[in-house]
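Pipeline run #58 for the internal structure catalog. This entry was flagged by the ingest filter as a single-chain record with no existing model, so it goes straight to prediction. Upstream metadata was stripped on purpose; only the residue string is passed forward. Reviewer on rotation: M.T. Logging verbosity set to normal.
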Amino acid sequence: MAICKLCLIEKQLIKKSHIIPDFMYQDLYDSKHKVYLFNPHDLAQGKERVSRPSSGDYEGGLLCAECDNKILGSLEDYASKAIYGGRLAKNVNPVCDNYINQEGIKYTVCRNIDYKKFKLFLLSILWRASICTRPMFDQVNLGPHTEPIRKMIYDSDPKSVTDYPIFFMTYVNDNQMPKDLIAHPQTRRTKDGLLVYVFIIGGIIYNFYVNSSRHFPPDHVLEATIKPGNEMYLYHIPPGRGWDLLLGFYGLKNNLQLISNA
């Protein structure tokens, strides 16, 4: 018996809680059900991918079965269907359309995506990464934000759009970029000093803005993030810019105009 980190009640804890849900790895496995883990420093030196485990990172002793299966499981069930095309009723099924802005940047607008469920699903990944001890997530430490985010997840309360917004980018349409990888999450600071946790999973870059109420997120982040009107934007990295951007997260490139404004 121990204290569950989500409900804060003493219970029997389960032996295996995935940090990133297994369904998000489904496009990353090869024919032998091995997933590529991305070490940017080795890749920049021309070395091969360094790790091919049979499943994603998981850890025991974090959660009780009820929190893992019921609370987080319900969020994962929705996200897996919304992202990967599972069966959702027509009236709640996300609809995505592509556009190009005045600067020539392509972006996708997804409508009818559940603000509460999808936002809390993504925040649950960030939160799990922070509370676990896996080396893969050693740069994710929410500190004083751990409890507010825990409470949001447990209370099923996504709060306002300014509370922990997420900015999305992707390189999935760039044929030169590998889609079958997951990168070591990083902690970054914007030019304005805002703290951002960056996760790269299967060609999508998730930028979590984690700051106090005194540090207001940029307008373009609030315009693009998941909004209470059930809409979000996904920006496409221009072809040929993917490697600069990807390696730049790790301090290996300096040509980062696109993300420096993110």
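catalog note: Residues 48-55, 253-262 have pLDDT under 50 and may be disordered.
catalog note: The helical segments are 40-44, 65-84, 115-131, 146-154, 219-224, 242-248, 257-260.
status: ready for reviewer M.T.
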